[in-house]
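Archive record
______________

***
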Amino acid sequence: QVQLVESGGGLVQPGGSLRLSCAASGINFRTYAMSWYRQAPGRERELVAGITRDGVMNYADSVKGRFTISRDNARYTVYLQMNSLKPEDTALYYCNANLRGLNIWGQGTQVSVSS
């Protein structure tokens, strides 16, 4: 069964850190480009960070220098390390797997940044 399962979300104070994980199953993970997206209430879903199958990373300007995406092909898992979190990072974070236009989405994990 093809599945992406996110974990690691939660409530954190401004300036804090979280590490999101996305475990994949049912796909040849190492051939997929992996990404994290987020969607805040009333806003469009936006790309946060991506990593190609060769390990090339890209980031939204709003998270550069604070977030780091990585992947472990042996564990079929992609991570998003989020540091220096801000209230505007509050959103539902989704994992995405893409292979030549075929998109697979996870259910999302909530990240809330508030004092």
Summary: The radius of gyration is 13 Å. The chain has a mean pLDDT of 97.
